[in-house]
């Protein structure tokens, strides 16, 4: 497995190059990252809500947890996870609930 240098998704099935596209953040390696730095692409992805790009996200996938676990702490100076237990009736933690935690 490979890690996306932009969104830090750790289960890329291929290396981040040769026009592969990250299913998580949608970065096309060799194209998008030729025009912008990984930091710029990451900031743009986060600013857009850090949404899953392609198809359905993995079960229990959460972008903020992904970033924090990977050691990326630049999400926001006020970033604080209020609860890791918040789940919908389907048992899946949604991005929206974590975004509420971001601004609370
Ligand atoms: Zn990515």
Topology:
Layout: H1 32-35, H2 38-47, H3 63-69, H4 95-103
This protein binds zinc ion (ZN).
Residues 4, 6-7, 9, 22, 24-25, 27 line the site of zinc ion (ZN).
Quick take:
This protein has 104 residues and is mostly helical. It contains four helices and no strands. 20% of the residues are buried.
What do you see in this structure?
- It is a single chain.
- It contains 4 helices and no strands.
- Helices cover 29% and strands 0% of the residues.
- With 104 residues, it is mainly α.
- The longest helix has 10 residues, at 38-47.
- The mean pLDDT is 81.
- The chain starts with 31 loop residues before the first helix and ends with a helix.
- Bound molecules: zinc ion.
Number of helices: 4
Q: Portion of residues in helices?
A: 25-40%
What's the pLDDT, averaged over the residues? 81
Find the count of extended strands (DSSP E, 2+ residues). 0
Overall geometry comes to: globular
Measured by DSSP, the beta-strand proportion falls in under 5%
Q: How many strands, which pairing sense, and closed or not: the largest β-sheet?
A: none
The end-to-end span amounts to: 35 Å
- Distinct ligand kinds: zinc ion
Q: What is the structural class? A: mainly alpha
SSE pattern, N- to C-terminal? HHHH
Rounded Rg: 14 Å
Low-confidence stretches: none
């Amino acid at each position: 497995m490979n890690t996306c240098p932009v969104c830090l998704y750790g289960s890329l099935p291929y290396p981040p190059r040769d026009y592969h596209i990250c299913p998580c953040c949608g970065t096309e390696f060799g194209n998008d990252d030729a025009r912008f730095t990984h930091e710029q692409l990451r900031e743009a992805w986060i600013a857009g809500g850090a949404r899953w790009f392609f198809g359905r996200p993995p079960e229990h996938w959460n972008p903020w947890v992904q970033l924090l676990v990977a050691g990326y702490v630049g999400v926001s100076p006020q970033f604080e996870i209020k609860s890791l237990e918040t789940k919908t009736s389907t048992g899946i933690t949604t991005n929206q609930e974590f975004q509420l935690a971001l601004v609370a």
